[in-house]
Every structure is written in structure tokens, then in C-alpha cells.
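Predicting holo structure, zinc ion bound.
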Amino acid sequence: MRPENPAGRRRKQTVGSVYHCLYEARRGCTKAELAQELGLSLPTIYQSLSELIASGLVCYAGEQQSTGGRRPQSLKAVADARVAVGISLMDDRIRMVVTDLYLNELHYRNVKHKLMWQSESSAAFLAECLESFLNGSGVDRQKLLGVGIAFPGVITTDRARVLYAPTLGLRNVDPNSLTQRIPYPVFWENDATCGGKAEMFIRGDRDNMAYLSLEDGVGGAVLIGGKTYVGEHQRSGEFGHMCVEPAGLPCTCGKRGCLEAYCSAQRIRNTCGVSLDTFFEGLAQHVPEYELLWYDLLRHLSIGINNIHMALDCDVVLGGFLTEYLEPYLPQLHEYAAANNPFAANSDYLQMSVLRRHAVPLGASLYFIQRFLYGE
Ligand SMILES: [Zn+2]
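Done. C-alpha cells:
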């Protein structure tokens, strides 16, 4: 391949900075504003814009009329110039989203199906399921950056092996056995890490955050300086297997007393034998059996939350689909958490996620969006 000449590289960088400026501005910028913001000449701005408009990444944001005559036209980044897919693999469900470059959810589908890893038929099913979702959503395959896949477990940094996924009952398996039929770039990530990254991306206003995900399993992510801290063995933020009750309830990991054993959605379903909707309807009507379990869950959750806060001294953000039901019980959870805090008589650090229900599949798509935007 012929090496790129310096002038070509500089032009590419200029086009990139014009694009990023428009992307960040969201509401649009005029050519004069771009020139001023980037310290570039107007002819340079014109040249970059014509390239960006031709490639479909940028468009005119609409002409504004004013009494004093025509205002200069502003330009904006086209949100769906590229799209990404996020898939969340759960024990008995597949959740899929299509997102645009601002992580807006364009389409969503939930398929009830138990995938068998390392099975040809499951690999075929997943690929067909994805194609049917893309067809139904009318996604232009030319715009599709890739498919991010979130799952509740630990994966090696090279994405070659799933080391451990207790809620799926897996150890040391090849993730590609499940995605080999998917004809797009694929990236695997831990589900709670996806949730945390999506939350951070949407909030965009903080550097440090611990994210605690309450779904069928319990997991988390530690984000420091805007980046995920993965740890020495990719096990950082495995809050679900932090002990909150020595010799307590058995956990899927084989140990006892883990946060996951107490605070997962699975515990509610398995103990009461009802769906979450039924459980929370019953709880609102004070069914004693449900109240007993729920307040025990909240007490253990508050221990876990406090432990995370003590270790990291940053906001703890609660996410995952269980949090959708949490709102009426937040004052109680705050009270339990504050009672555990030796340094302050409150629990202001405890916050609810903005994205709630679809944070995990949204976060799964984020890898391809960030790679496109920032080359990360
Ligand atoms: Zn455990």
C-alpha cells in the first residue's frame, strides 16, 4: 500500500475536526462559527464540508428566517448516517437494539429463546434472528458499523474465550461459536460494563462512576476518568459476587452470600414463582411473603451499595431492568444505605440510571459508535 502523504493526512485530520465539532454541537453550527471555533479559514471549512456532505455524514440543519433577512444556514451531523446493533444475551432471551451515532434507540426487539452455546443450530438461529430484526427495522446494511454483543460473564481481552458466565452456566467457551454466522463485525463485552459505558456516554458529565447492574444476574462496572477500569484479570466491578451475608444464600458461582444471590431478578422469580410484574403488583398490595423478600433484598442491596461507595468514593449508579420497579422504594433504599455510611448521614451518591431498561443492549452497540467517532 502506498503510504499516505503528509498533505493528505492533514486534510483528513481537518475534515475529522470539522465533523467532530458538528457532532458535539448537536444543534448545528454555521460555517463562520466552525471557522472561528477551529481557527480555520473559510475556504478550508467549505472544502471539508463539501466532503462531509457528499459522504452523507453532515447535512444542512434547515434555513432560518428572521425579520432582518436570511440568517446563515447551519449544518449538523446526520445522526443516523451510521448505525450500530447491540444485542444482550440472557439465559432465556435475546434483546436487540439499533442505535444511531448519538446512541438514540431507533428500533428494539425482545425474543424469548434459550440459546445453546457451541451449537450450530443456535448460531444459525442468532444470525437469522438478527437479519429478521434488521429487515423489520429497515436498516440500510451499508450504514451498519457492527454488532456489539453483551453477556453476563467475563471474557478475555482478546475476545477469544469466555472465561466464566455463571448465570448462563458456562466456563471457558469460544464466543465465536455463537456468532460465526453473523456477517458483520462483532464485538463482545460484559453486560454490566455495557450498561455502565452507555450511562456514562449519555450523561457525559462525570469522570468517575460505579455502575451496579440489577438484572437476572448482578454485575457492575468501574469507570475512572471516563474509562472502564477492567482490573488485572478483567474481573473489576464483579459486584454481584461480593459477599453481603457470610454463609448466606447459595449463589450461581458456587459460593454463598453473594450480592447476586440476594438482589437479582432471578431470586424474585425463583423464590415466588411469579413474573416481576406480578411480584411488584402483589408488593404494592402488601402481600406479606413478597414484602419479606423485598425488604430483605433492599437491605442486602444497601450493604453492597455502601461497600462499593466505601471502596471507590464516587457516585454509585443503579441500572438494569430491575431498577424499573425500584422508584417507589427508593426512599427506603436511601435510608438503609445512609444508615451504613459512617462518613455522612445521607446517601446522595446513590443515583438511578438514566437509561434504565435497555442500557445493556444500548451499551453493547456503543463500541462501534465510539470506534467510528474517535477510533477507540
Ligand atoms: Zn456469587
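The chain has three domains: 6-77, 83-195+359-374, 204-354.
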